[in-house]
Specification:
With about 750 residues, the chain is α/β, with parallel strands linked by helices. It is built from 22 helices and 21 strands.
Length: about 750
């Protein structure tokens, strides 16, 4: 009925009153404008589905439009029935504008009305329902009168009896809403001065426009019904405020996107966003561009398969594996896995990848975060290599003890046999062959220990030129006449603290490797020089402290090494020689000795252009110490009493027999407890304790300490087939005490005993 009344009123205004004036046309224009605004805002909301204020504004425009149409009907009504219908319709929709006004202003100003809005909404809905039900809230029309204005326009004015509900509460509610809006505008000025002033000004104007219908409805003044302006005024005002706020939101969004892009581009991981609808990357950061090597314009057209090899390291096809991980992410999981990518130049990049689905109602987006783990895998490989070398070193150290005891027996008895056989005895060659085999076995053990950096060193301050000079004549016999050996020594030499025997062995190992690299002859160059490192540098996989160094350089013109071989040359048992031509321990021995001596080694090699080893050892700024006479030069015989403690019976029997043959009186014990019991029982004078370091129940060092409390001035000679870490745990390290490394011959033992007894 209401819609038919509106149509009848508009028809009447255009046919019966063809000479309507400006006020009616203004209302009709406002009706069209609000209808267009309602459609416009609704379509904007439908397309964006993110601005709730657009939906509210479209509803507000619809309600204002119906209110405007009803007022046009009142202004042009020609009967009491039509005027009453239009008045009730105007009341029905007019009261609905109030909660919508509050919602819009609060939304734009960023204020939440909460309980006030709930109260106003409930009141307005009740009044609207009552008016729709036919209750004359705004009064009952008793008469209609045409009123002519000076400019010739004739509009309808109404006479009304008091309403069932009364018009005063409705207008009080309207004034309350406008007052609330003014307060909100005042609060908004603190954040946005211009928007706050506009809201307050419009609220005050709405109050003024409300006075006219108030005078007509409550005071029964004969004034035309133009109160629609209080509603229509808010449509353009709120539209402008919304446009301004949207522009500010766009600016904030652009700034936020810039911060987001900066944050993403500064991330240490490569980040990509995959759109499953198009199958390619739609977003990626600069790290991803750098990792894959594709320009950003080209990377945007790539798929995950384009940046992956055909097969992963575990043998799976990249396409099959990728589908499984992406399916997990689509289903809400966060798969975390290792993946090998392929850069534009074909380089493979091992990565850790984490996938997660992004929230998007229109597309299926998967974000991938990729961490390059090449460096970590390299460190892990180095760690595994170090653990492997450590395991081999522990194996060598564990075998060394028993092996060296056996070799001590072999070499000891061979030495005794050679001393007792006549020079023309045919058995001498056989015994010597056995002794040589034992000596080579002992040398192999020492090389294993040197590789593992577990050999007991006896460091001395020596001139490197002296070591090179003493080794030169041996090298010339080893390398052959078809290789030209050139030795260049730096003037003044350079003092270093090393084990001279081991350094000579290092030089021999490098020369033999050079000889094998020069099968058709060539040039081998050895030189020494001093170097001064002004700052800490990285070399040989470690940080090398600044300081002065003596450098030993061994270079050849051989076939060199490939890039694949070079990283493995210091690995134990790694060799490029044929079967039976090398053990793969030579360079491992060199590496272990240099490290244990506090130096570092550099290698430069290229296929077809030779190899250069550069060994740097710390320079010692003092003259070489006075060397003790060699063991062979010391008179080995004596008549002193020696307490021999050895847990291996065969070794104990051999050593006792050997020392006795040199004139010493020998007392033997199988362990520390037996030795203590023997000393206390016989109460004999003991001049020297010769003891194994590692024994059951009591170590040799503990035995020596206990005997020194009972025998003042007791001298001690330690011997062991173990390596230095074991000796360190038992109190003997780097020959700080008199020490003899197994295996040895009886002559060497007797000489060491004599040397220890004669030491003051």
């Amino acid at each position: 009925m209401r819609a038919l009344s509106i149509g009848r009123a508009v028809t009447y205004s255009t046919i019966v009153r063809p000479h309507m004036g400006a006020l009616v046309y203004i209302n009709i224009a406002l009706l069209g404008m609000t209808a267009f605004a309602a459609l416009h805002y609704f379509l904007m909301w439908w397309w964006s589905r993110r601005e709730r204020v657009l939906l509210i504004l479209s509803l507000f425009s619809v309600v204002v439009g119906f209110t405007t149409a009803a007022i046009v009907g009142v202004l042009t009504a020609d009967s009491i029935a039509t005027a009453q219908a239009m008045l009730d319709l105007r009341t029905t929709f007019a009261v609905l504008t109030y909660p919508l006004q509050m919602s819009l202003v609060s939304e734009i100003a960023g204020v939440r009305p909460r309980r006030i809005w709930t109260f106003v909404t409930a009141t307005c809905l009740a009044a609207s329902v009552a008016s729709t039900a036919g209750l004359p809230i705004n009064g009952t029309v008793t008469a209609v009168h045409p009123t002519q204005f000076p400019w010739g326009e004739t509009l309808t004015t109404l006479e009304r009896a008091p309403g069932w509900f009364g018009a005063v509460p409705i207008y009080m509610l309207a004034y309350f809403v406008q007052a609330y809006i003014v307060v909100v505008g005042w609060q908004t000025t603190r954040r946005d001065k211009l928007a706050g002033v506009v809201i307050m000004t419009t609220g005050i104007a709405a109050v003024i426009f409300t006075v006219v219908p108030f005078l007509a409805d409550v005071l029964q003044w004969p004034v035309p019904y133009i109160g629609t302006l209080q509603y229509a005024l808010w449509v353009p005002v709120l539209s402008l405020l919304l446009s301004r706020e949207s522009a500010r939101r766009d600016e904030r969004l652009a700034a936020s996107q810039e911060r987001y892009r900066a944050l993403i581009d500064s991330a240490p991981d490569a980040i990509v966003v995959l759109d499953l609808g198009v199958g390619g990357f739609v977003e990626f950061n600069q790290k991803a561009v750098d990792m894959f090597g594709w320009p950003a314009s080209e990377l945007a057209s790539k798929t995950p398969i384009d940046v992956s090899p055909e097969l992963q390291p575990d043998g799976r096809r990249s396409t099959d594996a990728a589908v499984g991980y992406i399916r997990q992410a689509v289903e809400g999981g966060t798969p975390f896995f290792e993946w090998t990518h392929r850069a534009r130049d074909g380089r493979e990049i091992p990565c850790e990848v984490r996938l997660v689905r992004l929230a998007d109602p229109r597309r299926i987006l998967i974000r991938g975060s990729m961490t390059d783990i090449s460096h970590r895998l390299q460190l892990e490989a180095q760690l595994r290599q170090a653990q492997k070398m450590e395991a081999i070193g522990q194996l060598a150290g564990g075998v060394a003890h028993d092996f060296n005891n056996l070799l001590t027996v072999i070499e000891g008895y061979c030495g005794m046999l050679l001393d007792n056989l006549a020079l023309d005895d045919p058995l001498r060659n056989d015994v010597r062959a056995i002794a040589d085999a034992g000596h080579r076995a002992a040398s192999l053990t020492q090389r294993l220990l040197a590789f593992s950096r577990r050999a007991v060193l006896t460091p001395k301050v020596v001139d490197i030129n002296d070591i090179v000079g003493e080794t030169e004549h041996i090298l010339r016999r080893l390398i052959g006449e078809d290789i030209l050996l050139t030795v260049t020594l730096c003037p003044g030499g350079g003092y270093i603290k090393v084990d001279p025997g081991h350094l000579g062995q290092v030089l021999i190992n490098l020369a033999l490797n050079a000889r094998d690299a020069l099968p058709a002859g060539g040039k081998l160059t050895i030189c020494t020089e001093q170097a001064d490192l002004g700052a800490t540098v990285s070399a040989d996989g470690q940080d090398v402290a600044a300081g002065r160094y003596v450098r030993l350089v061994v270079s050849d013109t051989g076939h060199g090494m490939s890039a694949d071989v070079k990283p493995h040359i210091f690995e134990p048992f790694f060799t490029t020689k044929g079967v039976g031509r090398g053990t793969g321990l030579g360079l491992a021995v060199v590496h272990g000795f240099v490290k244990q001596s506090g130096g570092f080694i550099d290698v430069e090699s290229e296929e077809g252009r030779g190899t250069m080893f550069s060994i740097s050892l710390p320079l010692v700024d003092r003259a070489p110490v006075v060397q003790q006479p060699a063991a062979a030069e010391i008179a080995a015989r004596g008549a002193e009493t020696v307490l021999l403690v050895e847990d291996e019976e065969a070794v104990r029997h051999l050593l006792a027999q050997g020392l006795s043959s040199y004139g010493f009186t020998v007392m033997t014990a199988r362990d520390g407890a037996d030795a203590l019991h023997l000393v206390r029982e016989r109460a004999a004078r003991i001049d020297l304790l010769v003891t194994d370091v590692v024994m059951p129940n009591m170590s040799g060092r503990d035995l020596a300490d206990r005997l020194r409390t009972e025998i003042a001035g007791l001298k001690v000679l330690f011997m062991s087939g173990y390596t230095d870490d074991t000796l360190l745990r038992h109190g003997v390290y780097e020959a700080r005490e008199s020490f003899l490394q197994k295996p040895f011959v009886i002559r060497a033992l007797a000489s060491k005993v004599r040397e220890t007894l004669d030491r003051t």
